[in-house]
UniProtKB/TrEMBL annotation, chains A, B:
SUPFAM superfamilies: DAK1/DegV-like (SSF82549), DhaL-like (SSF101473). It comes from the Bacteria. Residues 367-569 form the DhaL domain. One of its GO terms (molecular function) is kinase activity. This is Dihydroxyacetone kinase family protein. Pfam families: Dak1 (PF02733), Dak2 (PF02734). It comes from Microbacterium pullorum.
Length: 575, 575
């Protein structure tokens, strides 16, 4: 909803004032909108765009060199008057004629049409190209009845680039019309915006549902479906737009610009997840993707919705689409003197995980370590659901899947390193990095740090003796302690690893074998993990998390104890 | 909320894949994030940024020439691991050292710190500059404890520009630190985002309330207040940030870059309305504003919130802030060969309302027309509230204020034109344009068109006879009919003007004087306006608007009848 305004009646006027103040590098305010603040050396045809306000960057945000010369900016979702269009077009005119371009809406058609008559009456050559990209707003055999949505950007950019290149009005009009003929968009919405001062949104879509083909002012859609996955939406978009491609376009070898547009409340991260599948589907269809755009190009305040636009290029359109432009909200340029980075320059990447020299003894230890990771990964695979269940009681439920993914990745990395004759440290470092990368969350980061710390303690040269293991486990404990802010008694994994490490160190100092010491310490860890469910001790956390966590142990402590027992089994088998 | 995803656990990874696919002109994916896809002729210091995902364009969107060399992109709102930072920094390194820069959060400090140690262990000079711009997150005497929010953009841009300019690592570090020292931000929030797959938003703010100083991941704010007006928020921002300006900065003559940032759901139009007052307040404080930015630079998915950042420039910082850059989401460049447009080139504007030649008879009619506008404006002033009340029952309640504003502007324009010896047509055209510009909404546009049509019918030369008036009213009727889709019987203003015009034409043809004919037609219009409240006829509209409209006439029809009677009074007085 729109929350920030003064008098709602003054909203559009104040918005335009603020926009012009913030964008003085590009635009100057005139009655009815803005025109460019700069001119080039030679006069060009003037491209004048416009429509109601509320669609930023459409329309004022698209005024500047290489794009529009002026924008008539009406009240919220209301066409500018003929007089406003006329004053903007008159100010923008550089003596070579004016092209008016705007989305196909009745009010805009009426007012821009009257402005065109006034321009012509004053002896200025003035033409109009309507944008009609919305495939849902009329059938294929009535293309001229379709509405304009995010395809606005395409037609305006092509027309502006053509004007900038010095074309005459005939040619600018021809190219703008060609751009519109080769542009198609499909939109969906999940909910409408609430205008300044209004009590209710312009329209509603039931929760969990998605309106298909709904317009940017809430014009009715043609269907309503359950909200699909991101990949599902990508497929809906691409299937429809490939079917709707302009007559005569062959998919094989076609070059296309995809523009994935957010209407306001569907944000960049979601758009990128959707784009990922769009990119794959278009590529799979044999289409060459040129210079895609993902962002907010034609919004409707904070309306929850998105649209995909495809511009089917030919050589002329491609050159104009890629030409430089500089406006408040859409810029395209090149910083000179750049070259593509070469693969060889990125090989430093591999160095980060280079396998260095190692002693035979350390390599032998690495092989045991690798087998331990395999056992731990198998164990966590089996227990992932149960760990998730425990975590859902007090936390966010991702502990099980995080440990499963992390240990699986660590297993693969350890096997790869050990198989490449890595020593113990290198093997543990590869495994730790992989666990942190893939495990995610705090537990992934902590396990990554623990394994890297263990590796640093045992090295790639020395044999991994019982004492080295004890020192390594102590280093793991230190890594956990320094990682977060938790202390013993806070009922976290620390409550298991601290007594485990202390007991192991004490038993080894007392002369126990590694297996005996580890066995005893693992029992201590289990008891300690169980104690994290102690009712009294958990009361503090329970207060903030609700009663459900009472009696449930900390999942991090539990999984640590499980790992300790699994490693014990491996040690016994190796013995 | 976040609606579009596949498996929520894969969201960040798929987002990064989609981002890299859409942004291949600028970035290449590597383990843990992205690095630039191009290199310049000479190697530079590498600026590596990063943090959790969910803040686009931070962080991947800021990688490219003139800005960052690489971005480590963690999971949603979670720091990248040390390994991820390390691989990105290693790939980005061009042989002249690495500057790590990121917001001051515990997880990021830990992981970037560990990555820095790894870089140094590999013999690469690596430094760190934390961003600490959020004035609400710690007091003035603990600047180093503050969090980083939208000030990220400033520090990254300055560091990237310094690297691009060829500075060595000492200097890039110094300048990044200087940028952070001279950057302050203040943020507010109205509500939190809901992450993919989550059932609830990260945090809530009660309806109508605003959290002050709340962090971009929902960290607690320091106060909660009623949502102010846009101007009120601007004043809160500016007052706080002027008070928080860096030690030693004199307001008088200071140059400052304001960056007004939307967190996701507070949209461009609202930001511009807020910026309007920020611009005025800063200017009034004696500060020179340089190259402002209004948009989305550091978001939190679709979180409803905004922040203002001020960068207090010195000569070095100004040059670096204005230097060109080219990244997926932030570009700055100049299209060469531009010059500022001169005032004289915009004078064509005035020509649009040039006063042409007119006969004495037409000028005399213009004077009467001008007096009629004065009477109509006074009448609508008196009836604005009542018309608004009627409109609120079935419509949006703006009819009264729209008619008031429109007629007032038309009155002024008509008086100006008639006072400058304009004829009847020119006077009506000025008045109609002013009504459409200022009245707004459909009624403003319709009255504008009606007046322009009436003007075209009577001209600037001929005397305005009774028959000319009749023909002019018929032209007004045609203008209304062609304007929208409404037809007689739809219970709109058409139901009043059609019988009015038809009756007037018939009476004039029958030999009535203008006053007699107009008087009769005005009575017909009143009856017709009243009939728009007919219960049976309104049932169709009532079904979609609720019962309240039953028995209430259409406000457009009522105001037309009122105008008809007011003009009758003027005609009688002139007679």
């Amino acid at each position: 909803m729109t929350r920030l305004f003064n008098d709602p009646d003054d909203f559009a006027e104040e918005m335009i004032e603020g926009f012009a103040a913030a964008s003085a590098r590009w635009v100057r305010p005139v009655t009815g909108g803005v025109v460019r603040a700069t001119r080039g050396a030679e006069p060009t045809v003037a491209v004048v765009i416009g429509g109601g306000s509320g669609h930023y960057p459409a329309f004022g945000g698209l005024v500047g060199p290489g794009l529009a010369h002026g924008a008539a900016m009406g009240n919220l979702f209301a066409s500018p008057s003929a007089h406003q269009v006329h004053t903007v077009a008159t100010a923008a005119h550089e003596g070579r004629g004016v092209l008016l371009s705007f989305g196909n809406y009745a009010g805009d058609v009426l007012h821009f049409g009257q402005a065109q008559e006034r321009m012509r009456a004053a002896g200025i050559d003035c033409r109009t190209v309507l944008v009609t990209d919305d495939v849902w707003s009329a059938p294929k055999d009535e293309l001229e009845r379709r509405r304009g949505i995010a395809g606005d950007l395409v037609v305006f950019k092509i027309a502006g680039a053509a004007a900038e290149a010095g074309h005459d009005l005939d040619d600018v009009e021809r190219l703008a019309r060609l751009a519109n003929d080769r542009t198609r968009s499909s939109g969906v919405a999940f909910g409408g915006c609430t205008l300044p001062g209004a009590d209710e949104p312009l329209f509603d879509v039931p929760a969990g549902r998605m309106a298909v083909g709904l317009g940017i002012h809430g014009e009715p859609g043609i269907d309503e479906v359950d909200i699909p996955t991101a990949a599902g939406l990508a497929e809906m978009f691409v299937t429809k737009l490939l079917d709707e491609r302009p007559a005569g376009v062959d998919l094989a070898g076609a070059r296309v610009v995809p523009i994935l547009n957010g209407l306001g409340n569907v944000k960049y991260e979601e758009l990128f997840v959707v784009y990922r599948t769009i990119h794959t589907l278009l590529t799979d269809a044999g289409v060459e993707i040129v210079s895609p755009e993902v962002g907010e190009f034609c919004t409707s305040f904070d309306m929850a919705g998105a649209s995909l636009t495809l511009l089917w290029l030919d050589d002329e359109l491609e050159q104009l689409w890629l030409a430089p432009c500089d406006t408040p909200a859409f810029r395209r340029g090149e910083v000179s003197g750049r070259r593509a980075v070469e693969d060889a320059e990125l090989t430093a990447l591999d160095d980060a995980h280079e396998i260095g020299a190692a002693s035979d003894a350390s390599r032998a230890a690495a092989a045991v370590i690798s087998r331990a990771f395999a056992a731990v990964a198998a164990m966590l695979d089996a227990h992932a659901d149960e760990l998730g269940r425990i975590d859902r009681i007090a936390g966010d439920g991702d502990h099980g899947i995080g440990m499963q993914r992390g240990s699986r990745a660590a297993d693969q990395a350890a096997a790869g390193a050990a198989g490449s004759a890595a020593g113990a440290q290198t093997t543990l470092q590869h495994a730790g990095d992989a666990w942190a990368d893939k495990g995610g969350g705090t537990s992934g980061a902590i396990w990554g740090e623990m394994l890297v710390a263990l590796g640093a303690a045992v090295g790639d040269e020395d044999a991994v003796t019982a004492d080295a293991v004890g020192a390594g486990v102590a280093a793991m404990k230190d890594a956990v302690m320094s990682f977060g802010k938790a202390k013993p008694g806070d009922k976290t994994m620390i409550d298991a690893i601290v007594p485990f490490s202390d007991d192991l160190t004490e038993r080894l100092a007392g002369g126990d074998t590694l297996i005996d010491a580890w066995s005893h310490a693992a029992g201590v860890a289990t008891a300690a993990a169980e104690a994290t469910s102690n009712l009294t001790a958990r009361l503090g956390r329970a207060r903030s998390h609700g009663d459900r966590s009472l009696g449930t142990p900390d999942p991090g402590a539990v999984s640590f104890a499980l790992v300790a027992h699994t490693v014990l089994d491996v040690l016994k088998k190796e013995d």
